[in-house]
Known about the structure:
By secondary structure, chain A is mainly β. Chain A contains no helices and nine strands. The termini of chain B are far apart. The model of chain B has no long low-confidence stretch (mean pLDDT 93). Chain B is 3% helix and 49% strand. The A-B interface holds A 32, 34, 41-46, 49, 85, 87, 91, 93-96, 98-107 and B 4, 31, 33, 35, 40-45, 48, 55-56, 58, 90-92, 94, 99-110.
Amino acid sequence: DAKTTQPNSMESNEEEPVHLPCNHSTISGTDYIHWYRQLPSQGPEYVIHGLTSNVNNRMASLAIAEDRKSSTLILHRATLRDAAVYYCILRDPPGSGNTGKLIFGQGTTLQVKP
Amino acid sequence: DAGVTQSPTHLIKTRGQQVTLRCSPKSGHDTVSWYQQALGQGPQFIFQYYEEEERQRGNFPDRFSGHQFPNYSSELNVNALLLGDSALYLCASSLLSGLAIGDTQYFGPGTRLTVL
């Protein structure tokens, strides 16, 4: 399973953008990049995923480097409720044998200051 | 929609005992995965159940076993508990057909197991 590397922690001010980096230099050509976050005392929740192109949804944006060896999760305006552990995960490509097993690292703990 | 539910919320056991944790998947989902999350670590995949059978297993000993019922709910059983089994146990549900096209999983809030 390909591995990801993330900073242990980051800080942000409320209402400012946050860029959470992830390195995945051993990514294969068909691995998808998924981001989940885990709020305190909750289970992980899906944030966003992509393959090659940048992606946007109501929660965040995902910027993927051209060589796919790194990606950045962008929260456009951080709120106090965005304080969580953010996990960058590589997933097997879609297919009949795909169990969707998620290989979590230690993630990045995001602190948001008022 | 109640989402993924797990019971109990917290549990305290002693070494050598056995424990059963329960999970009800999100409505319409047919696949349940279990994860173990030690304090300060990311979740680790234990196994996945579909059609009442174990579909894939992570690197966990046979003391960890599971079951899926016809209504898709699932149980995680751990025998001969060790101190190191203390963790948050998470259940995640999904549609098997969705997993095949890259769909995400939905996690429950977890069961906090403490082994003394």
